[in-house]
Structures are given as structure tokens and as C-alpha cells.
Amino acid sequence: MDDRLFRNAMSKFATGVTVIATETNGNVHGMTANAFMSVSLDPKLVVISIGERANILSKIKDSGIFTVNILADDQKELSMNFAGQLKETKEVSFARLNDMPVIDGAVAQMACEVSATHVEGDHTLFIGRVKDVYLEEKDPLLFFNGKYRSMIAVEEPIS
């Protein structure tokens, strides 16, 4: 199977957009990702998938922590910044949740401790035990078919 065909098929799955962050030696590192999902309610677990060439991979391994920041629909530039899509990288200030770096204004922030790792193919899956959560009432930034999107409410038919 052609790699492009597989990538095109995966782009047909609409996802939210997250910034994964971690901290080592007082320095915060982040990257844009959409490979994130919940795993368990009891205990509260999530999983992120990080490519073997991503700079943040060794940082999460070293720190043993990460945060998941589900971006709001007005945070496209932040996503592009952490994806390396801007001509000039912009400095980002981070807030704290459970003493871990998070992005202000995100729809959801989750502070996680790594509870397990699993290498599969060219990615490492980090299972994180969620230590704290903060929510804001905003619409999420979405990604579909290689483009950023926003939600549009659809009226439910009255029965």
C-alpha cells in the first residue's frame, strides 16, 4: 500500500488539535499532535502517540510527565507554532496545572504522569495517568482533510 494513500485515508478522520507539553531542567517543550485518546475512566488514563523523530520524545521519557492541551478554535496560530508551520517561532508563556506546563485558553488541560510506554512501528505510545484537569467553555479547534476547521452547530430536528 502506498504511504500517501494511507495518509490520505487517515486525514478523513476529523480530530481535535492538541499541544503536548513537558518540562525538563526548567525548559518547557511542546508539539502539536492529534494522536490522543482517552483509555480508561478508572484509573483515569489517556494515551499520546509520539513519532521517533520528534524532539519531544526524549524529553517526555526524561521527565516522566506531559500535559495535553486541547486547543480552542481561536488557537490555530498556537497549533501552527508548535507544528513548526510559522516562519518565525513565537515565544509562548505557559500556565501551570499540578505544577506542569499548560496553555492558557485551551478547551481542556490535562496534567499527566507517564504510567507506561509502548514502542510500536515508528512511534512511542505514552499512557498517562491524569493527575488534574481544567476545562473552559469554548469550541475546539478541529483538523480534517489536512485543514483546520471549526465546529458549526446543527439544529436537531424537533420531534
UniProtKB/TrEMBL annotation:
Gene3D superfamilies: Electron Transport, Fmn-binding Protein, Chain A. Residues 10-150 form the Flavin reductase like domain. Keywords: Oxidoreductase. It comes from the Bacteria. The lineage of its organism: Bacteria, Bacillati, Bacillota, Bacilli, Bacillales. SUPFAM superfamilies: FMN-binding split barrel (SSF50475). One of its GO terms (biological process) is pyrimidine nucleobase catabolic process. It holds the Pfam family Flavin_Reduct. This is Flavin reductase.
